[in-house]
Amino acid sequence: MDVESDVAVVGAGAAGLSLALRLARPPAGARPVTAVLLAAPPGPLRAPERTWCYWEEGSGPYDEALTASWRRLRVRSGDGRTLDAAIAPLRYKMLRSGAFEELVGGLIAGNRWVTVVEAVAERVETTPYGALVHGRGAGGDRVNVRARWVFDSRPPTRLPPARTTLLQHFRGWFVRTRHPVFDPTAVEFMDFRTPQPAHGLSFGYVLPTGPCEALVEYTEFSRRVCDREAYDRALRHYTERVLGAGDHEITGCEQGVIPMTDAAFPRQATARVFRIGAAAGATRPATGFTFSAVQRQTAAVAAALHAGRRPLPPRAYALRPRLLDAVLLHALDRGRVDGPDFFTRLFARVPAPRLLRFLDGHTSLAEDLSIGLCVPVAAMLGSALALPFTARRSTPAVRRP
């Protein structure tokens, strides 16, 4: 199978689907471009379903696919102190990848500008006119896509050199209880009533979809992932002893690992091949949130293509947020700050809407300085001074379990 188009989008995750949808709906007066989206066929090569969370003001373009949304976040310290914060005018939103894929698939079905091809990209080759994507379909048949521009969302085989790399690794259970246990009006954003590891930090995370149903996750920020038994042991302790779930049924599971690194992810592989999404640095290093940055990045790429400009994806975050994250990661990794105390203090002293805007990289210098006064200044300053003398090292990328 040989296909030609202006654009080839490799991978149908959050970044690939978001870019394909924007290219399928060119704004009035824009220059349309044709695109091929290479999506892995159903089977072992397709990524398992996962949950994305993000916040935005008011209604958004994907609201009809949401599982739930909330106006309140809750943080609990290790000793049980509860911080309950309203986040209006923002809403915290839960989107399952399967629902997003179904929504985007329905919107681009039969579209004149975007074609979906079920194939796994094996190699991207630079050519005089652009690039050639070599792929394989479900039956092993060869698929070649010739395009002027290629946007590759596949995760790298190695992470770029970094001064600090921690892993945000987690396992979650979709839980249904016999009696009401969960507060469906608020997300348990960070619950530090979990046994803390020797290095890093851990917390519970609860996305309640009803009084008797929730996604309950155990999350660690540390250098190494756990085995499945360790995750399940921690989840059992948190669900049964901390949350007091009583009789419950586990209806599903999800598990993942997100690099938290101050590495500089390259946005361009060759003259005509670009990276998008997490592969291009869309993951916020200090938190692991990615979805909102993916939307900003793919919107900019689509606008450039529709205007006939060179479509280099923009950096997901400006220099100042990246530097602040590098300092925090260094301080956490070197044990300069106590993780649970650090995040609890932030939520106690900074209004939640401002803190969420900070996590999205949307605060001013004055706001950043005011937030900086709420953290251990001496410890953070020590890491800031140590950063220039810390060597960068490359590490293998950690795949989703």
Description:
- It is a single chain.
- The mean pLDDT is 94.
- The relative contact order is 0.16.
- The strands form four sheets. Strands 1, 2, 8, 9, 10, 11, 18 and 19 form an eight-stranded mixed beta sheet that branches. The protein has a seven-stranded mixed beta sheet with strand order 6-5-14-15-16-13-17, with helices on both faces.
- The chain contains nine helices and 20 strands.
- It is an alpha+beta fold and 401 residues long.
- Helix 5 crosses helix 9 (377-386).
- Strand 5 (72-76) and strand 6 form a beta hairpin.
- The protein has helices at 14-24, 97-108, 228-242, 291-307, 319-333, 339-349, 352-359, 365-372, 377-386, and strands at 2-10, 35-39, 51-57, 66-70, 72-76, 82-86, 90-96, 114-118, 120-127, 130-136, 142-152, 158-162, 165-177, 187-191, 201-210, 213-222, 248-261, 268-270, 273-275, 393-396.
Key structural traits:
single chain; 401 residues; alpha+beta; FAD/NAD(P)-binding domain; 2 domains; 7-stranded mixed beta sheet; 20 strands; 35% strand; globular
Rounded Rg: 22 Å
Main beta sheet, described? 8 strands, mixed
Q: Structurally, how many domains make up the residues?
A: 2
Low-confidence stretches: none
Q: Give the strand content.
A: 35-45%
Distance between the termini: 33 Å
Mean pLDDT: 94
Structural class: alpha+beta
Order of helices and strands: EHEEEEEEHEEEEEEEEEHEEEHHHHHHE
Morphology call: globular
**Percent helix range:** 25-40%
- Give me the number of helical elements: 9
Q: What's the total count of β strands?
A: 20
